[in-house]
Amino acid sequence: MVGGVGHCGESDEHAVRSQRDARRRVASDRPWAMFKHTRGQRPEISISLCLMDTPADPYELFDRWFAEAKETEPRVPEAVAVATADSQGRPSVRQVLLKAVDSRGFVFYTNLGSRKASEAVVNPFAAMNFHWKTQSRQVQVRGACVPVSNEEADAYFATRARASKIGAWASKQSQPMEGRGEFESRIAKYTARFGLGDVPRPPFWSGFRIEPDVIEFWEDRSFRLHLRHAYQRTESGWTITELYP
Ligand SMILES: Cc1cc2nc3c(=O)[nH]c(=O)nc-3n(C[C@H](O)[C@H](O)[C@H](O)COP(=O)(O)O)c2cc1C
Description:
Elements: H1 5-8, H2 13-29, H3 31-38, H4 58-72, E1 79-85, E2 91-97, E3 100-102, E4 105-111, H5 115-122, E5 125-132, E6 137-147, H6 150-158, H7 162-170, H8 180-194, E7 205-219, E8 227-233, E9 238-242
Antiparallel strand pairs: 1-2, 1-5, 3-4, 4-7, 5-6, 6-7, 7-8, 8-9
């Protein structure tokens, strides 16, 4: 028997990882096992009880998957696609870096003159998509896109490298640029302006928090028999719905 019931309750990362490896071995060596079990025909294969651990709180599952991605992704596991849409509903999408996550949502920072920020202002909804290739996992987040407070943005900006702070001042993000020389002269201008002193957060640079209505977790299985669980926010918490892959 593989992936026994007893393992399901274990919370330490090693147990979770070896449990998942065992599930994958079963899924790839004996794909019929998972398929048949979903029809209730092979109760001796207990992997179904561990197919995807779905705690009541989706952030608990996100934190676990993110921690595992940090261990295995070769670069920037916090990179995430963010989709916004203009006032006519026409979408655009780009990568950003996740800078904070807690029970309120998922935070990224950007120039407020950028396309994404302009769209988030006229159409205050957005979606995020993480794809951790080394984990064969995807997480989708959909919800309201809400500006973070000035205090929160200031606190994050203060942690950035000085050159990154200067860069935030110098970049007219998403605007046409005459050439690299124009950008370099703006960098020189702001480097001179701030000298050795503090570099404050530009008034045109801040963050947004996607406050999800839905967080969907997807995990690869052989023969496209993938696992999908959608958490939907309700008045009192979250409901969990399993979806066809
Ligand atoms: C891995 C990665 C991370 C990025 N992180 C950010 C970010 O956190 N904030 C940001 O404004 N742009 C980030 N960028 C650049 C954006 O993808 C994009 O080019 C820029 O924000 C302008 O997008 P927009 O014109 O659609 O608003 C990142 C790009 C990559 C490839």
